[in-house]
What does this fold into?
Amino acid sequence: MASLERRVAIDAARAAGHLLRSELPGSRHIAYKGSPTNLVTEMDARAEELIVGRLTAAFPDDAVLGEECGATAGRSGRRWIIDPLDGTTNYAHGLPIFAVSIGLETDKRVELGVVFDPNLDELFVAERGRGATVNDRPLSVSSATTLDESLLATGFPYNIRETRDNNLTEYAAFSVRARAVRRMGSAVLYLAWLATGRLDGYWELRLGSWDVAAGSLLVEEAGGRVTNLTGGTLDLDAPALVASNGHIHGAILDVLRTVRGEGRA
Ligand code: IPD
Ligand code: CA
Ligand code: CA
It folds into this structure.
């Protein structure tokens, strides 16, 4: 990975994160994307505009997929995948748990991942084959080997009020098997925190490409494992995800199989 891509992505993530942090105390204009639990604020769009502006100025031939502005085609075979504000519900409530995520995919593989948490001032960077860091310190996943000693995280789909596949049965099953299960409203931070060893495992039934592009590379480069719900390859276009330190991956998949049945998981 040329250092220019890394540098531009880091600068964009930091700038967007600082913008979000500086505006956090203000009042938010909240709109809804399709369901009453799927919020979007004016800051999602402002942060994305900033990031996309910088990336397209530096790399005009690359495609872009941003959560708010959608897809723009490119000619280079590369695609930037952006979540300008992961943790919008937290942000709308003034809760300082959110992050910016930028991934760069080449030939359908994420090669660079940058996540910035402006609240803890933590910059996470991963390059395929070259490891992952937080504020330049190398990252590695935890060593927990059983669910019993594991801290897990999960999230729930925005259409939780309509769908029967709402993750509540899975949540109950893991809650009685793991040390604890957290839900803090930021898929991107779960993956970054998994890469640091603060969390041991994470599952979620339905995510967007922008939620997982950068974070999944962080986990893999920190020595962890990322799959779909049955242990197969993660589908970046429609991610259903299990991520872990690797040691407890099989145990997480077993619980999902038990709860969801062979066909559904
Ligand atoms: C959401 C958060 C949440 C997860 C949702 C995501 P957003 O992203 O990561 O933790 O449960 O599935 O959509 O909407 O805050 O960018
Ligand atoms: Ca998100
Ligand atoms: Ca978002």
Notes: The chain has two domains: 3-138, 147-260.
